Amino acid sequence: MLSQTSFKAKMNYIWRIGATGFSFASFGLGGIAIATVVAPCVSLTARDQATRQRRAQQVIRTSFKGFTEMMVKLGIMTYSVDGLEKLQQSRQELVIANHPTLIDVVVLIGLMQQANCVVKQSLWSNPFTRGPVQSAGYILNAGSNQFIHDCVTRLQQHEAASLIIFPEGTRTQKHEQINQFQRGAANIAIRANVPIRPVLIRCTPTTLTKNEKWYHVPAQPFHIEIKVLDAIHISEVLSDLTVSPKNVRILNQYLHHFFKQELSK
C-alpha cells in the first residue's frame, strides 16, 4: 500500500501530465487565435508592413510570457534568469543559445522587449504556428543563401530588433550537453558585423528534449536556468573581418567551444 508521501507524489505526477497536455493544447489554440483573429486586426490597424510585424511580435511576446507563467502556476516548471537586463536591452544583436528543450524559444521571446526569430520549415507550415510566425515576419530557415541574406538584411535595418538563432539547429538528445554548431549563425554574424549575445540554457531535470514525447514528464517540476552573458564582438575573435569560409569556420568553432566550456562550469 502506498504511503501518504508516495500517494501525493503519484498524484502530483498525474496532475503534471494533465497540466502539460492542457498547456500544449492551449498553445495550439492560441496560435490559431492569433492567425484568425489577432493578425487580421493588426493588419487593419497598421498600414505599413514593419508596423504590422512589430505589433504581431508584441502579441507573440505577451502570449509567450503568459504561456510560461501559466506553466509555472500549474506546477509544471520554474525558471530563473541571470542577466535579464542584457536581454531586455538587446538591440541589433545576434542572440545565440543552446537548445535543450522544446520551449526554449518561447521562454526567450517572452523575456525580450522585441525579437526577430529564425524558424524551421515545419513551424512555418504547421497550422498551429504558421499564422503567428508569418504575421510576425519571422525568418524561414530553408537552408539556402536566401536565409542568410534575409537574416543579415533584418539585422542591418535601422534600430532593428535582435535576432534569436539556435546554432545547433535542433534540440539536444536527452542527457547530452550540446550538439555541434551549424555554420549559419557564424556566417550571419560576420556578414552583418553585429555583436553576438550568448545565452546559456540549462534544464534540470532534462525534459522535452529531441525525440522525447511531451507526456514523458520528469518525476518533479523541471527548472529552466537562463544565463545571459556579455556580448562577443567579431573583432575579438577575428583579426580579419573578411567574409570567407575560413573565417566562418574559425568563428563557429570558437562559439561552440565557448558554449561547451561555459555549460561545463
Labels describing this entry:
single chain; 265 residues; alpha/beta; Glycerol-3-phosphate (1)-acyltransferase; 10 helices
Structural class: alpha/beta
Strand content: 5-15%
Which CATH-level-2 architecture?
A: 3-Layer(aba) Sandwich
Strand order of the largest sheet: 1-7-6-2-5-3-4
Fraction of residues in helix? 40-55%
* Named CATH topology: Glycerol-3-phosphate (1)-acyltransferase
What is the terminal separation in angstroms? 43 Å
| Average pLDDT reading | 91
Q: Radius of gyration in whole Å, from Cα?
A: 19 Å
**Count of DSSP E strands?**
7
Return residue spans where pLDDT drops below 50 for at least 5 consecutive residues: none
How many helices? The count is 10
Shape: globular
What is the CATH level 1 assignment?
Alpha Beta
- Provide the number of structural domains: 1
Order of helices and strands: HHEHEHEHHEHEHEEHH
The largest β sheet comes out as:
7 strands, mixed
